[in-house]
Amino acid sequence: MINNVQFWSFLRQILLAVGGGLVTKGYLDSGTLEAIVGAVITILTAAYGLYVRRKAGLVATAAALPEVAKIVTTAEIAAKVDDPATVVAR
């Protein structure tokens, strides 16, 4: 399984490879390519960060840790997390 750093690095390299073809064909110059790839990676990373840090995402991340036996939360959050370690408060 790859981690987040490896994934974003891989995605950046794919974008650079595709963009390299566009530079070779003359559609872009290298400076524009770097700017576009940088902007795309920044926007995607920020969006992913916001998604992961929502309440259900934080609970799911915590529940996935081997040190965590049980997480007690509200029914609303528990319904969004598919993990048997997450239970509803009574």
Key features?
transmembrane helix, Phage_holin_10, 90 residues, mainly alpha, Holin, 2 strands, transmembrane
What does this molecule look like?
The structure is a single chain. This protein has 90 residues and is mainly alpha-helical. Helices cover 67% and strands 7% of the residues. It has a two-stranded parallel sheet. The protein is elongated, with a radius of gyration of 19 Å. It starts with a helix and ends with a strand. The relative contact order is 0.10.
| Separate helix tally | 4
Return the domain count.
2
In angstroms, what separates the terminal alpha carbons? Answer: 36 Å
**Secondary structure tally: strands:** 2
What's the shape? elongated
Query: If you compute it from the alpha carbons, what radius of gyration comes out, rounded to the nearest whole angstrom?
Result: 19 Å
Q: Please describe the biggest sheet, giving its number of strands, its sense, and whether it closes into a barrel.
A: 2 strands, parallel
How is this fold's topology laid out?
Elements: H1 4-25, H2 30-52, H3 55-63, E1 71-73, H4 75-80, E2 86-88
Parallel strand pairs: 1-2
Helix pairs in contact: 1-2
A few lines on this structure:
It contains four helices and two strands. The chain has helices spanning 4-25, 30-52, 55-63, 75-80, and strands at 71-73, 86-88.
